[in-house]
Amino acid sequence: MYIGEIATPKVRGFWGNFMSIFTAIGQFFINLIGIYCNTRLTSYICLVPSILFIITFPFVPESPYYLLMKGKEEAARRSLGRLLRKRDVAADFEQLKADVKRQMSETGTWRDLVCIAANRKALIAGVLMRCAQQFCATGALGSYTRYIFEESGGDAESSTLIYSGASVIMTVIAGFTIHHFGRKKSFVVSMFLCIACILALSIFYYIKELQPQVDISRWLWTPLLGVTAFTIFSSFGVLVIPTLMLGELFSASIKAKGLTVLLSVMGLTISLSNYIFYWLTVSYGMYCPFLVFSIISVFLTILCIYIIPETKGKTLEEIQQILSGNVRE
């Protein structure tokens, strides 16, 4: 939300991806530290970046959008100049002021979230992306990585580190490249490639669990390859685009309520997908959740093609006009 408001359209994709980059870095270091440290020491180590954040964040400039919403025009002008690193921000400020004024003309009630066309389309697109993200097994793979590798008969500890390390590398690379491509195209292509990966995992576990006469001793590396490939492909779309677009979809008046709903949906879909993964694995075998998730993901990806708007290179006001149907993509 904050990055969406302070970054220019040209670099919003680059900076918006930093949340995903640091999430991947955090997961890698937790896996690495967990090998050598006990739970208490690991918790103390994890306190360090949180304390640094609390100390440094008050020095970050406030969003000009937020300041204008609160009627603090002079503070908004100074913040905009600081963010754009230039003194003459008159034209930029007047445009921003007009955009915020139009968006704040909406009452911003919960009813507006579903009754105003632009807000409704933004909400549907956001919910759809979060559902697609989790039901292509991103959350389940993150939660059950060690278990998946143990079930395949490989070295779970080393494989988990390779998986999380690959996630860091590819997310960083994606941060420097994803802003060159459209959000929608990146997400859809990434989804189809991830579907291919989890389908391959389903086939491997089907043979391992239901075809015992087949010798798979030479193919025990398949889960590591499949999960690593999944990490690579998801880093260029599935993992980052839903988070990146959080601050782009909603107008200023309804943004807080829209993000509240989407974050709630995210928590719900993570819990639900993890539970379904566990239940299907226990009931039918490891192949089943990957097969079910791949089928669901195909359906959700097709919906995404028709529903998600393209936001690359557009101002927040232009995105609202597209969602309202006043401007074509």
From TrEMBL:
Predominant location: membrane
Membrane topology type: Multi-pass membrane protein
Domain Major facilitator superfamily (MFS) profile: 1-312
Cellular component, GO annotation: plasma membrane
InterPro entries listed in its UniProt record: MFS_dom, MFS_sugar_transport-like, MFS_trans_sf, MFS_Trehalose_Transporter
Localization in the cell: Cell membrane
Record-level Gene Ontology MF annotations: transmembrane transporter activity
Keyword list, A-Z: Cell membrane, Membrane, Sugar transport, Transmembrane, Transmembrane helix, Transport
Annotated transmembrane regions: 14-34, 41-60, 161-181, 188-207, 219-246, 258-278, 284-308
Gene3D superfamilies: MFS general substrate transporter like domains
Keyword Ubl conjugation: no
Name of the featured protein: Major facilitator superfamily (MFS) profile domain-containing protein
